[in-house]
Amino acid sequence: xxxxxxxxxxxxxxxxxxxxxxxxxxxxxxxxxxxxxxxxxxxxxxxxxxxxxxxxxxxxxxxxxxxxxxxxxxxxxxxxxxxxxxxxxxxxxxxxxxxxxxxxxxxxxxxxxxxxxxxxxxxxxxxxxxxxxxxxxxxxxxxxxxxxxxxxxxxxxxxxxxxxxxxxxxxxxxxxxxxxxxxxxxxxxxxxxxxxxxxxxxxxxxxxxxxxxxxxxxxxxxxxxxxxxxxxxxxxxxxxxxxxxxxxxxxxxxxxxxxxxxxxxxxxxxxxxxxxxxxxxxxxxxxxxxxxxxxxxxxxxxxxxxxxxxxxxxxxxxxxxxxxxxx
Length: 327
Hints:
With 327 residues, this protein is an alpha/beta fold. The protein is 37% helix and 24% strand.
């Protein structure tokens, strides 16, 4: 077993990372930490009394973990990741790796050894639906050049939930939805189509004047393989459109449900529905922990996904955000 500490006990830390670490037979959780007392209290009720509960990364490191999972906001992640790596630990850092390319420049000072110990939490890359979709594309099931549409809408405005609204407003102040949600989507597209996506044009819309930044944004992108990509991202409207990705080629249409990752393939031969066991979040966070523990144990010498993938997704998201605001 490997020993792991979790830093960041907000919704994603407490709701997804912590259960995955507790479920893993290869992990011994030794510490959890968060500067917010209410978060620490909520997490403490979920772990054994043998798990140290602290308020900082230093507290977590004091427990002597082999690895550290950072479920922290992207404006805090770079400093914490670098500190943990330089303390000799392996790190799994939530996406995006920073709020901007400029903020991510601090990673350039990492040594090769430190970069080799840093896995990026592009969690849903691990899903078997992505692997199946890639096989359809690579095997030519859909045909040649593709029209890809990605509609990623999440975080509806919840009437009466002032805490959620304030948290999302705070996140929005550090970047439009494409910066946060685009990290996943642009990573999937690079994995499925290959690198080289370029932004042709973009747009942004602020649906309420009191929001700190546009809450709807999108772009048209082109790929050197001839594929065309249309993306949309949105938060904080009372109702949201369907969240899905479609891949349309001359021989078929593949649809990925954004909530469940159920797949549907339609071709001249008929239609096929593909679903995978369990819910998407559980299986993907479990798979992510498996890859992280394999990295710590030395079963692999390459983090998957690595820092380069995280930086590439961030750079593309930032281009969309900047062009959308200036359009």
